[in-house]
Amino acid sequence: MNLSQKTVAKVAISHKITIPSYDRKNTEIGIVHLGPGAFHRAHQAVYTENAMNLSGGNWGICGVSLRSATARDVLSQQDYLYTLATLDKNISYQIIGAIKEVLVASEQSELVIERLSAQNTKLVTLTITEKGYCLNADGSLDLTHADIAYDLNNSSSPISAIGFIVEGLKQRKAKDIPAFNVLSCDNVSGNGDKLQKAVLDYAEQVDCSLAKWIKNNVAFPNSMVDSITPKTEEYTVNTVSSAIGMQDNWPIQREEFTQWVIENNWQGEKPDWDKVGVIFTNDVDGFEKAKLRLLNCLHSTLAYAGALVGYETIFEVTSDAVFHDFITKLTTREVIGSFEAPKELDVLSYSKEIIERFLNPEIRHLLSQIAWDGSQKLQMRILPIIQDNIALNRPTKLLCFSLACWMEFICRALKNGEDIVDPLADKFAQMPVLFTKDTAKIVDAFLSIDSIFSEDLMDNAVIKNHLITNLNSLRMGNKLHLGKIMEALC
Ligand code: CS2
To answer: Does position 118 have pLDDT exceeding 90, yes or no?
Structure first.
């Protein structure tokens, strides 16, 4: 039996397996979500589901995949129902019904714009990853980005998230329908502010009065999102299907911990998220920085350093005492103190809990997944710490080790002819120096990429030296050796 609206009532409900308790059929769409990947389905969709289980409301979600049709094709076979498997000390399964449809923007752009401009749509949320914002290093919209340039010439059938948002708002303005709120849920610092800047820069190219209307009418709250969500693998499908007693072809897996902090910057209605654990605050910045620096920075460090010695998962690499010790010292010596944490956050115990979360044996979080898009992720999770530490006269040695591991990771992949998942993959492949042994030139070549590094980092002799020393050491390395470098650095 396959999971569907017809069969869901037959799921073997227990305290560990739950199904939607609201009137799903009569729930209307109130949210359009751009990028309905695993993280959205394990996080925002679940908070929305829990809010509807508690108090109903027309907060069904229309998921919009910008390119890939897989989510639509698989989920439409099961009426968009899927299982959230919480894999931790406690294991549980929840069938989620919040997503009511999935559209594929590249095939159904008219329908997407129709949903965006519908009276009922109160909210647009996004998980489009760092690269989806199409920003220059100075935070302005990259008007030369291929997708943005395309959209500016084809604004009624766009392909980028920014193009869709502006077109949707344009139609609302024309029809005199109130604007929606736009909530970024990506691991990007100041995500709402950055998105607002991108949207306004784009709208100004289309029509200045539209840009003004957006500025005055659309709220772009900042938010911090957190929950470790590895991608769905075959074993996830098999375990979940046997647990719920029917076939679910696209469940998702997640740890038990989940957090969502949203800025108090809102117009009109919203789901009862505050009743199901979402924190609304005026200081998202502190929470965002804490999470990006104390969790994501360690994740990327482990992903690149761990991959260099052949580890596959976060659990494996964190279980190695040398790596565990390194990230603990990285945290206490270079990360904590680089930013002002929110008063209500006990940073030491927060960071300890994060490292404990990495040691969840139920979750197979692949280093290769975290290693994706390094050229984008590093700008959010490692480089700002280095910059703040330089300004505060604090050490940067261990952070430079993380960065050197990324450089070596890219060079090795190029030399071995392996695929690099990164928007700059082609650029790396066209940099002959990355294939050589000249570590000083390699560091220079990386640092000269101005879409990643700001001038202050490019020209900083101390940083350059740390990077060259680390890269030299890494090149001598086997697993034992890498352990020794890490120990020596500490
Ligand atoms: C990870 C994040 O893939 C990655 O880069 O660091 O997705 C991480 O698991 C989440 O931010 C946790 O909330």
So the answer is: yes
Tell which atom from ligand 1 comes closest to the C-alpha of 296. Answer: 6
pLDDT at residue 471 greater than cutoff 70: yes
- Which residue has the least CA distance to atom 9 on ligand 1? 228
Q: What span, in angstroms and rounded, lies between the C-alpha atoms of 16 and 31?
A: 28
With cut-offs at 50, 70 and 90, classify the pLDDT of residue 173. Answer: very high
pLDDT (tens digit per residue) in 278-330? 999 998 999 999 999 999 999 999 999 999 999 999 999 999 999 999 999 99
Q: Are 49 and 81 in contact (CB under 8 A)?
A: no
Pick 8-281's CATH classification: 3.40.50.150, 3.40.50.720, 3.30.930.10, 3.30.360.10: 3.40.50.720
Coarse DSSP helix, strand, coil percentages of the chain, rounded to the nearest 5 percent: 50, 15, 35
Residue limits of CATH 1.10.1040.10 in the chain: 284-489
User: Which pLDDT belongs to residue 314?
Assistant: 98
pLDDT at position 478 over 70: no
Q: Where in the chain is the domain with CATH 3.40.50.720?
A: 8-281
User: Hey, what CATH topology would domain 284-489 get?
Assistant: N-(1-d-carboxylethyl)-l-norvaline Dehydrogenase; domain 2 (1.10.1040)
CA of 343 to the centre of ligand 1 (A): 24
Which residues 6+ apart lie within 8 Å of 365 measured at CB?
228, 230, 313, 314, 315
Q: Return the beta strands (E) in 3-59 as ranges.
A: 17-18, 29-34
Strands (E), 76-158: 82-87, 91-96, 99-104, 123-126
> What spacing in Å lies between the alpha carbon of 291 and ligand 1's midpoint?
10
Pocket test residue of 187, 223, 255, 302 for ligand 1, highest count of atoms within 8 A of CB: 187
**Residues flanking ligand 1, CB < 6 Å:** 187, 226-228, 295-296, 299, 369-370, 377
Quick check: 481 pLDDT over 80?
A: no
Q: Which amino acid is at 490?
A: C
